[in-house]
Design a protein that fits this description.
LisH; LisH domain-containing protein ARMC9; cytoplasm; single chain; cytoskeleton; 725 residues; ARMC9_CTLH-like_dom; extended; two-stranded antiparallel sheet; mainly alpha; 2 strands
Length: 725
C-alpha cells in the first residue's frame, strides 16, 4: 500500500470514528438506552472505535474563555484583540440583521476610539488617538454606514472630524463616569445570550445547520412578504374608503352645481359639512370643527397642501474658517490649492439640493470665497492664471459650480475681472482641455444674465464662437452644444445681432453649415441664432445674395416635421420686408433655475495620497470654523402673467414654467422626454446625457395668427430670450 493510500485510509478511519461518536452522543441524548447498548456492543465486536463525546463541559469552557477575553480587552481598550474575537465568534446573521447588535457594535467602536481620551484626558498619546480615529472612520465608511440615517447615531459621524471631542457639547455624555460601565453591562448581557452553548448533540446541530439555513431564509422572506401584504391591504382599504367618500362628495357637489345653475343658493353650513367630510381622514376632529371652510380659498389650499411633498430634515454641514481657507488658497502649495478647490467644489456639487446646498452657497457668498470685494492685489480668482494646469482646471470647475446656481450667477456677476479671466483662459487653453470646457460652460450659464451678455459681446466673444464653430468637426459634441447655445444667447441681443452684421456672410455660412452637422441637438440654437440675426436688413440682404433660402430648403426632410416648420419660419423672416429689432434693454433677466451637472465632477485628476486629507475630511479637520454658515431664504421666481398658447411670450420664463404652457411641445426630442421623466419638476441636475440645452424664453413680436398656429416649436425657440444647458 502506498503512503498516499495509507493516509487516505487514516482520514476515513478518523472520520468514521468521529461519526460513530456523534451517533452514540445522539442515542444517549434521546435516551435510546437499549439501542445504545446494542450499538456499543456491535462496534466493539467489529473493532470500531468511538470518539469520546465532546460534552458541554468543553463548550462551556471555551465559551467562558471567549467571553472573558472579550470583556478583558474591552476593559484594557485593546480594540484589535476585541474586534478579532468579535468577528470570529459573533455570528454574521446576528451582526448583519439584529438592530441591537448593530447598535452595540457602533458604541463599542466609539468606546475604543475615545479610550485614550477617557484614560488620559490631558496627556494622551496623539498618534494613538489618530490611529483609533482612522480605525473608526474606516468602520463608518463600511459596516457603520448602514446606521447613518438613524437619528440616534447621526451626531457621532462627526466624531472623527472634531479635534477635541472631550469639550464638544455633542459628545458630553460619552465622557461621563456612568457611560462606560453601562456599555460594559450591555456587552456582558449580549455575550451571555449569543455565546450560550447549545445542549443539542452534534448530529442534530449538523442537520439543523444544513436544513435551517434555507428554511430561515425562506421564513425571513415570508415574514417580509406578510408585512408588506398587510401594509398594502391597509393602504388599499384606506384608499377604497377614501374613494367611496370622494365619490359621494363629488356626486353631491355636482348636484349643488346643477342647483346653482337653476338659481338655488348653497348655504355656508352645507359647504362646512362637505369639507369636514372631505378632510375627515386627514385631520383631527377638533381641528376640523374649528376651521372655517366657508372662507374663500381655505378648502382648496388645504387640498393642495395635503398632496405637497413633506420636507425632510437635512443635516447642515459644519461651518468653516474662511479667512484661513482663503489665505491657504493664495499662499499654500499648488497641491494644497488643488485639494482645497476640489473640496470646496465637492461641498457644492455633492450637497443635497435644497436647504443644505443653499446654506453652503450662502456661506461661500457671505464670506466672499472668491474675494469679489477684496482690494488685495492677488486674490483667489487669480488662480485662473496659475502655472499649474490642475490648479487652473479646479478653479474653472469651482466657477462652473457657482454658475450652475442662480444665486451663484448673481455673485459671479459682481466680480468685475471675472469675464476677463474667463475669456482669456478660453482663448489660451487647448481645445479639448477640461479647463477650457468648464470655462465655456460657465460662460454659457452666465449668459443668462444680460449684464454678462453685454460684456461678452463687447469682448467680441461672438466672433470667437463663430470661428470655433466653423471648425465644428474638431469640437466634442458637448463643447459644440454649449458653443452653439452661447452664440444664440448673444445673438438674441440687439448688440449681438449688429455684431454679426459686421461679418454677415461669414456668420451665415457657419450657421447654415451647422444645420448639416450630424449632432441634431444643436438645431434649436442654430435656428434661433439664424432667425435672430435675420431681423437686421443688411443681414437679410446678404442672405438673399448667398441664396440662403435655397440652402435652407435643402435641409427640409419628410421625416423631420419639426425642423421643417422651423426652417419655414426662418425663410418667412428672410423674405419679410421689415424685421423687429426690439431688445427690451431695460430688463435684467435671469432664470432662477439651478443647473448643477454631474459633469462638473467628471474625470478627477487629483487623487489623495496615503494618509492625506481630502474633500470634507480636509475642510472639517483643518478649517473648522464657528457660525460661518449663513442661512438665507432662497428667492423665489416672481410669477409672471402667461400669454395665450397662440401668442408669443412677452416676458422671460424658465424652461420648467414654460413646459406647462403647452407651446411648442410638438418639438420635444427624445432627450427632452427622458429629462422630464427623470427630473419630474426639473429638480435633477442637467447632464449632457439626459437633456439638450433648454430654452430661455422672452418677448418676440408676432407675425400673423395663422402663422403662429402652424409653426409650433419654431415659435418657441425664437421667442426664447435665453437658453442654457
Amino acid at each position: 500500500m502506498s503512503s498516499k493510500e495509507a493516509a487516505n485510509m487514516g482520514d476515513i478511519s478518523a472520520n468514521e470514528t468521529d461519526l460513530l461518536g456523534m451517533i452514540k452522543e445522539y442515542l444517549k441524548f434521546e435516551e435510546f438506552e437499549e439501542t445504545l447498548h446494542s450499538f456499543e456492543k456491535e462496534c466493539k465486536s467489529k473493532g470500531r472505535l468511538l470518539s469520546k463525546p465532546r460534552g458541554n463541559t468543553l463548550k462551556d469552557s471555551k465559551t467562558r474563555v471567549i467571553q472573558k477575553d472579550l470583556l478583558s480587552s474591552f476593559d484594557d481598550g485593546d480594540h484589535r484583540v476585541f474586534f478579532e474575537l468579535w468577528t470570529e465568534n459573533i455570528p454574521h446573521r446576528v451582526k448583519d440583521t439584529d438592530a441591537e447588535a448593530q447598535g452595540l457594535e457602533f458604541y463599542l467602536y466609539i468606546h475604543f476610539t475615545i479610550y485614550p481620551l477617557r484614560r488620559h484626558p490631558v496627556g494622551h498619546d496623539r498618534a494613538e488617538f489618530e490611529e483609533r480615529v482612522s480605525f473608526f472612520r474606516q468602520y463608518l465608511e463600511t459596516r457603520g454606514g448602514a446606521l447613518s440615517q438613524t437619528t440616534e447615531f447621526l451626531p457621532y459621524y462627526a466624531l472623527p472630524f472634531v479635534p477635541n471631542p472631550t469639550v464638544h457639547p455633542s459628545f458630553k455624555e460619552l465622557f461621563q463616569d456612568s457611560w462606560m460601565p453601562k456599555l460594559r453591562d450591555k456587552l456582558e448581557q449580549f455575550l451571555s445570550v449569543i455565546l450560550k452553548p447549545s445542549n443539542s448533540p452534534r448530529l442534530m446541530t449538523l442537520y439543523k445547520v444544513d436544513n435551517n439555513q434555507a428554511t430561515q431564509q425562506l421564513q425571513l422572506q415570508l415574514a417580509e412578504s406578510d408585512r408588506r401584504i398587510t401594509s398594502y391591504v391597509r393602504k388599499f382599504n384606506k384608499m377604497q374608503a377614501d374613494y367611496h367618500n370622494l365619490i359621494g362628495i363629488t356626486a353631491e357637489l355636482v348636484d349643488s352645481l346643477e342647483a346653482t345653475v337653476s338659481g338655488k343658493m348653497i348655504s355656508p353650513e352645507y359647504l362646512q359639512n362637505v369639507c369636514v367630510r372631505l378632510f375627515s381622514s386627514q385631520m383631527r376632529q377638533s381641528v376640523m370643527q374649528s376651521t372655517d371652510f366657508t372662507r374663500p380659498g381655505t378648502a382648496s389650499s388645504m387640498l393642495r397642501a395635503s398632496i405637497a411633498p413633506q420636507p425632510k430634515d437635512v443635516p447642515m454641514l459644519p461651518s468653516l474658517d474662511y479667512e484661513k481657507l482663503k489665505k491657504d488658497l493664495i499662499e499654500g502649495s499648488e497641491r494644497l490649492q488643488s485639494l482645497l478647490l476640489q473640496a470646496m467644489r465637492w461641498r457644492l456639487t455633492r450637497s443635497l439640493p435644497g436647504e443644505q446646498r443653499d446654506t453652503v452657497l450662502q456661506a461661500y457668498i457671505s464670506n466672499d470665497l472668491l474675494e469679489c470685494y477684496s482690494t488685495k492685489e492677488k486674490t483667489v480668482l487669480h488662480l485662473m492664471r496659475s502655472t499649474n494646469e490642475i490648479v487652473r482646471q479646479y478653479m474653472a470647475r469651482l466657477i462652473n459650480a457657482f454658475a450652475s446656481l442662480a444665486e451663484g450667477r448673481v455673485y459671479l456677476s459682481q466680480i468685475p475681472i471675472l469675464l476677463k479671466h474667463l475669456t482669456e483662459t478660453l482663448r489660451k487653453e487647448e481645445k479639448e482641455s477640461l479647463t477650457r470646457e468648464n470655462v465655456l460652460v460657465a460662460l454659457q450659464k452666465l449668459s443668462l444674465r444680460r449684464s454678462q451678455q453685454t460684456a461678452m459681446i463687447a469682448d467680441d466673444l461672438i466672433g470667437w464662437l463663430v470661428d470655433e464653430l466653423q471648425d465644428s468637426d474638431c469640437l466634442s459634441d458637448y463643447n459644440l452644444e454649449y458653443s452653439a447655445a452661447l452664440l444664440m444667447n448673444l445673438c438674441l441681443r440687439t448688440k449681438g445681432k449688429r455684431k454679426c452684421a459686421e461679418n454677415a456672410k461669414h456668420v451665415l455660412k457657419v450657421l447654415t453649415d451647422l444645420l448639416g452637422h450630424e449632432n441634431h441637438e444643436i438645431w434649436p440654437y442654430v435656428n434661433g441664432a439664424l432667425y435672430s440675426i435675420l431681423c437686421i436688413p443688411s443681414v437679410r440682404q446678404e442672405a438673399r445674395e448667398m441664396s440662403v433660402e435655397e440652402i435652407l430648403r435643402c435641409y427640409i426632410k419628410e421625416e423631420n416635421p419639426n425642423l421643417n416648420r422651423q426652417i419655414e419660419f426662418i425663410i418667412k423672416q428672410l423674405n419679410s420686408e421689415e424685421g423687429p429689432e426690439s431688445d427690451d434693454e431695460e430688463e435684467e433677466d435671469d432664470n432662477d433655475e439651478d443647473l448643477m451637472e454631474i459633469d462638473i465632477d467628471k474625470e478627477e485628476v487629483l487623487q489623495p495620497q496615503h494618509r492625506e486629507l481630502s474633500g470634507e475630511s480636509l475642510l472639517t479637520t483643518e478649517y473648522l470654523g464657528i457660525m460661518t454658515n449663513m442661512t438665507k431664504v432662497k428667492r423665489k421666481p416672481t410669477p409672471l402673467p402667461q400669454p395665450a398658447a397662440d401668442e408669443p411670450l412677452q416676458r422671460p420664463v424658465t424652461p420648467s414654467s414654460h413646459r406647462n404652457i403647452g407651446v411648442g411641445r410638438g418639438g420635444e426630442t427624445s432627450r427632452d422626454t427622458e429629462y422630464r421623466q427623470k427630473s419630474g419638476e426639473g429638480s435633477l441636475p442637467h447632464s449632457r446625457y439626459n437633456s439638450r440645452p433648454p430654452t430661455r424664453s422672452g418677448s418676440r413680436p408676432s407675425t400673423t395668427d395663422s402663422l403662429r398656429q402652424s409653426i409650433g416649436v419654431a415659435v418657441e425657440f425664437q421667442k426664447s430670450k435665453i437658453i442654457t444647458l
